[in-house]
Amino acid sequence: MNFPILSSLILLPLLGAIFIFFSKSKSNTYLTSKYLATFVSFVNFILSLYLWYLFDPSTAEFQFLEEQSWIKGFINYKVGIDGISVLFIILTAFITPLCVVSVNSNIKYRLKDFLVAILVMESLMIGVFCSLDLVIFYLFFEGGLIPMFLIIGIWGGERRVYSAFKFFLYTLLGSILMLVAIISIYWITGTTDITYLYSLGIDEKYQYLLWLAFFSSFAVKTPMWPVHTWLPDAHVEAPTAGSVLLAAILLKMAGYGFIRFSVGLFPIASEYFIPLIYILSLIAIVYTSLVALMQEDMKKLIAYSSVAHMGFVTLGIFTFTQQGLEGSIFQMISHGLVSAALFLSVGVIYERMHTRLIANYGGLVSVMPKYAIVLMVFTLGAVGLPGTSGFIGEFLILIGAFKKSFLVATIASIGVILSAAYMLWLYKRVVFGEIQKNEIKKLTDLNKSEIFILYSLVFLIVFFGFYPEPLLSTTQISVENLIEMYNINLNSNLIEK
Amino acid sequence: MINLNFIYSEIFICLAIMILLIIGVFKKNSAYLIYNLTILSLFVCLALILNFPIDANVELFNNSYKIDYLSSFMKILLILSGIFVLLSSSKYIQIVKINKIEYPILVLSSITGMMVMISSNDLILFYIGLELQSLALYVLASFNRDNILSSESGLKYFVLSALSSGLLLYGCSLIYGFSSSTNFDLIAENVNKDSYGLTFGIIFIITGLAFKISAVPFHMWAPDVYEGSPTSVTIFFAILPKIAALTVFIRILYVPFFNIIDQWQIIIIFLSIASMLFGSIAAIGQKNLKRLIAYSSIGHMGYALAGISTGTNQGIQSSITYISIYLFMNLAFFACLFMLRRDEKYFENIEDLSGLSKNHPILSFSFLIVLFSLAGIPPLVGFFAKFYIFTAVIEQSMYSLAIIGLLSTVIAAFYYLRIIKVIYFDAEKEKFERNHNIGLKISLTISTIFILFYFIYPSPLIEIIEKINII
């Protein structure tokens, strides 16, 4: 491979952002910058599809490796992908153009800056998923705080300042321990290169503390109970595109981090801390589902449902079974699509009614039939109905969980029922019922760009619900390899003892 | 015969001071001319330093004056920042009406004192350099003599600094008494672990130096002096004396007293932790940007001290990297401050920044970059500064220092974010003026570009600094 496709994926949105930033800001160029951003992000999406096409799923080796000396003799810029990361890159590249297209009248001022922030965000997120060096990973992981802070703070709702600060400080606090751990790993092993670290392994006595340090960062980002409280605030106050990026991709960075780092680097500690993860995940699934039932704000409800769904993801990862891990990855992709779709749908009606309170809606089905249909698909996707992508993920995770522990899987299954309860109830209150307000009668159905965005999501959710093979076959070998490596590490540790 | 050509730069700067004074006396209204000549002579001085091989290792004047890699590098850093400071403050001193001929000459003599400090290898010479720079700084702090705050800050700085100089001198005499020499190398030979007199001497010297870099608990003067002095002097205070004092810190601790590291290491660790925590907590309540940057610089000095406390070359290098990066961040921050001008008046409160981003997108973007960088958020340069420090600290397994330091960065992030919040999230106010002098624009552009794009190619700075080996 001569063409540095991964670096191009990272750099292209950044260059677009710089270009837009320095273009003259007259009012009539607003549209131009939007077209430009759309163009850049679509090219990036096509590039990512091309990457998938070139990707060889029959090997667990890292592919498209690029290595460049960065800080001499210390850290190398190293990127590469395997079956686990390629899907997240495509997801990121797919969601970003949707965000850009969805931006319209709801961003009233400084559209140009908003597009710059989103494109920078895309660069950083793709960087997270393909970096193969801990320091580079940290750089991308933390760098995302800056644009997200601005997106929430500048274009957010009423309590945007509080939410932006909470988001920033929570995630920063979680991450600093990870930085300490990364530097410690450098001094313990002499490298921060993940591929080397996989083969070297880390001494058992260090693993527990290092695992906890990484956990503190990922748990905040996932978010796991009890450090999830920043998420509902951030989601509610962020503008639609910001919520979509947060839910669809930012949360996945932590899940990805768990798979790549916690499991990959610290297998012994991961095994040791399984009960902790299970308990926290189960609390997240059941407790936040109950909390979601009580929400009056649509975005908040979806935010809590995200916490519950991410609970499934962490549960699935730490079953260390083929089904559990693949299910988790699938669930993350699926949740990326479904939550993005739900936030976009809320954005559609918020734009028309300027309220997110469920009580202000009702009877949308008679004025917005197309909207009612797509929202139904998304709701069912969130519930995990067979035939939607949500089902495959949850089903695989539960299979994996049943292999490990009957009790855990049973409790987790309650979460599935609860999710049906709050999602369907939400749907019923918003879409069905009598029209009680005059404003609702005046509502118009979806316009062209909304149709384009939402139908493409509907298509993917249903498509992967019926035919998950493309995703599963991409990840399969890498996951097998990960589990094999994990078991070898555990066994050798047992033999030593 | 002594090889005088190695100190051409110092000789030149002394001559420049005298000639500029004479020009100032005999030529009327020459303030502007002298200001520019000062900048020019700093450039010449820089060229003279660069003219000699940077890795030369020479000892002059009976081994009391040392030209080595550390001193050359720090001098280059010092003079570079001197140039930037003068370039960016030229318009300010005109508007505040402190553009007298003495101003640039005092700056030059202070820089001379710092150069002597940086190169000194002897307690007496070091003290002379320190006093030379301090005396010039007392006058500079109260230069705006009609302003009551400025006079107060000059007086306050003078009284407290005199006290700390006294302590420092007492420490020097103790060390001389117990090691029978004032030369660093000779002291190193005579250092004795069991001699408590020496330990006391070190403590007094550390006290004096900690005062100069405003480390907690010797930081009391910093907020008042920073706030009261004219901004053009504040930027000077925030950068140059710290470069000089940090070099002396490194040289004194690591040349004569490296063998008794167990005596002073814990003191430095304490200073470091106290500064980091205090700097970040006390800044939260501040309303004045200059006061806030005073507290923030207290915190930043804490990080630099954390590097020194490790007792390794790696630690020293990380400290020097930190101060070089810190310099650029402060330069950019003050350059932004100099741009807040409306109707011949400068604004320095946080609330004056309200809604700045709507009228001045580029300026606010620079502010944003600088503040995130000061907070240490990747991929900006401030992150790398902290990263190198904590790499060195963790190498020595000083985990608690690292974790406390990183926790205080989170606290510190809060008040930096607060400024960003005011700039970006709040309602807009009146516009500021846009016509700034070219020097200010240049220094802001250079420092912002450095902060923003350092991450693309971080190696050169590290490679230069890696050659500094003291131990």
Summarize the structure.
With 497 residues, chain A is mostly helical. Helix content of chain A is 77%, strand content 3%.
How many β-strand runs of chain B? Answer: 4
> What separation lies between the terminal Cα atoms of chain A?
44 Å
Widest sheet of chain A: strand order?
1-2
Please give the radius of gyration of chain B in angstroms: 21 Å
User: Can you summarize the main beta sheet of chain B?
Assistant: 2 strands, antiparallel
Biggest interface found: A-B, 36 and 32 residues
Rg over alpha carbons of chain A: 22 Å
Average of the residue pLDDT scores of chain B: 88
Order of strands in the sheet with the most strands of chain B?
1-2
Separation of the first and last Cα atoms of chain B: 29 Å
Q: Report the total helices of chain B.
A: 19
Q: Which parts of chain B are unreliable, with pLDDT below 50 for 5 consecutive residues or more?
A: none
- Measured as a percent range, the helix fraction of chain A is over 70%
Shape of chain B: globular
Structure overview:
The complex is a heterodimer of chains A (497) and B (471). Chain A has 497 residues and is mainly alpha-helical. Chain A has a domain of 182 residues. Chain A is built from 22 helices and two strands. In chain A, helix 2 runs parallel beside helix 4 and helix 13 runs antiparallel to helix 14. Chain B has a domain of 202 residues. Chain B has 19 helices and four strands. A two-stranded antiparallel ribbon of chain B has the order 1-2. In chain B, strand 3 and strand 4 form a beta hairpin. The longest helix of chain B is centred in the middle third of the chain and has 32 residues. At the A-B interface, strand 1, helix 5, helix 6 and helix 7 of A face helix 15, helix 16, helix 17 and helix 19 of B.
